[in-house]
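Q: For a teaching handout, I want to show students what a protein-ligand complex looks like in token form. Below are the inputs, and the small molecule is flavin mononucleotide. Please produce the holo structure.
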Amino acid sequence: METKLSLAPLQGITDYIFRNSFNYYFGNIDTYYCPFIRIEKGDIRKSKIRDFSIENNNKMNFIPQILTNDKEEFIQLASMLSKDYSEINWNLGCPFPMVAKHNLGSGMLDKPELIDDILKHAFENLDCKISIKLRSGYKSEEDIMNLIPVLNNYNLSELIIHPRLGIQQYKGEANLDIVKKVSKVYKNKITYNGDIINKESFENIQNKLPNINSYMLGRGLIANPFLAQEIKGITTDVDKLELFKEFHADLLNRYSNLLNGDTQILKRMQGFWEYFSLSFTNSHKTHKKIKKASNASKYINAINQIFKEEKWIS
Ligand SMILES: Cc1cc2nc3c(=O)[nH]c(=O)nc-3n(C[C@H](O)[C@H](O)[C@H](O)COP(=O)(O)O)c2cc1C
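A: Here is the structure, written as tokens, with flavin mononucleotide included.
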């Protein structure tokens, strides 16, 4: 079975600039998702419109993700997006309290009737493919087990499971057993997501879930952009640090052209280093140096020092 890999959506990290630059320098990703799109006070933010527009996503296989708990809003968002894209992904996983407490994202997982009602309306009114990304529950793994009979009534193109509870946020371990349990009763395609950080963790998951051949990579891939290539067994003799430096310079250049003012550019670049620093020797010190940089020139100094003194380890 051919292994399929996708890039997870990470709000504030995997925007179209990151996705395009990543795809150009590293690739080996079959599908790219964007962080969730939602309607706020009747509107979609300008930065979001840029993020999902076709001219910014036409160099990759791209699936937009929406966040909503309202069936009419679902149709509104999906109709707009399906003019350019053949598939829409519905977010039933977001754990952030500000989202989940408003019955959105993972906060909907204990409401199977509501999910059923929205899916019924969506399948009756839309022509596009629909997939779902979810967690194993909000407060209990019973949620996903109660939901599967509902989901089995629809022809979802994909069910992406991150097996943590909403209330866990990112703590504790991803529970592979619940994915196994779901795979025995769910009738359509499952993609596994969560804690794939290197080839070993990938192989461990692959061994425990032998019927799954599709995986979504998030934090592990951002920390080590060569992870997809390693998983697919593609070997090159490229100098990893040198390629990463080019990628970093490209990100910096693209954000400098897009964003207004040093502070915004600095914040965006610093955000990546929570992950990038993990691929360098002295990760903690590396991350601290980046966080300490209080303006653009100090950031450049920190980067130059890191690239000179630390080694690429992943
Ligand atoms: C900062 C951050 C932002 C995220 N934003 C989204 C999002 O917009 N939509 C979504 O479905 N998941 C989002 N996620 C969850 C990831 O897509 C993924 O499910 C999670 O990180 C587990 O996978 P990983 O261990 O490979 O990172 C986010 C995660 C993080 C850490």
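A: Two things your students might notice: Strands lie at 4-7, 31-33, 62-63, 65-66, 87-92, 129-137, 159-165, 190-193, 214-217. The mean pLDDT is 97.
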